[in-house]
Amino acid sequence: MKHSHAHPTGSAPGGSAAAGSAPGGPAREVSAELDRRWLSLALALIGTFLLGEVVVGVLAHSLALLSDAAHQAGDAAAIVLALVAARLAARPPRAGFTYGLRRAEILSAQLNGLTMLLLGGWLAVEAVGRLVRPTAVDGRYVLATAGVGIVANALATWALSRANRANLNIHGVYQHLLTDLIALFATAVAGAVIIVTGFVRADAIATLVAVALLVRAGIGLVLQAGRVFMEAAPAHVDTAALGRRLAAVPGVVEVHDLHLWQVTSGYPALSAHVLVAAGGDCHAVRVDIEALLQRDYGIDHTTLQVDHVATGALPDLASEVEAGDPDAHCVDPHGAVYRSTRAA
What CATH number has the domain spanning 26-229? Predict the structure, then answer.
């Protein structure tokens, strides 16, 4: 029975060098530090604008501005949460946390999504109330403040676009800012409509546009984070097709107990039990599988158990265990079993 555990850097067992950068290596650390700088810049921009928007929103009696201020407060809280999560994720593994605290980033993303949904619900109720009972709104303040907000949010969104948006934590904050930028455009239009026509309900309508955007982005974030917590395979990988490809590697007879999940965004991991033809080279097969996974799927972190089939025929797992065979393989493999067409 042979086992292997491949990492993104260093040498794999048996001296095979694995490609790529380690999840905790220098390149990732530099990238994470740059991400924190971009987050800090976005926080400074949003925080400054937030203070002014609250004051103007109260003076103008604008729900659209106050609702956007709530967005901005949510954005600021999301960025702070993202910064804290990034710091936690950067800590090395210790004690019982063998992967470190990398999933703090996913928790942050999920909380951001839930915050967006809660804000959306509250603003929807307020907007409907304003539609039923319109309140006088000073469109000049609304238009001017929305214009300043568009500039501030555009700069903050640009800053986040420079960070690693493959990271679900940063992607969550980016969605916050992008949603708020679109909402500010709707608020500016509402301000212009009020100035020109006096139609004050435009303020509440702009708020409902923002609500729709918040709910859409919030649901997406919650679902993406939920996939990571439920240890689902990356959405872009067809696990059945992957299993068939592994079974088609020369020398492989069968692949089962195939598990693919994400430790955190951008950090997939895979484990599998691979059966090799009697007399085959287990080490060479393992190296070929690791190369395929890294090259075609970007999967660097793998744990492979590689064993020989006892005979040239496919194993009858249940019969081997019932007979007391000490070298019997898994009697109850988890998930699908992928067998080579060459051995069928």
Answer: 1.20.1510.10
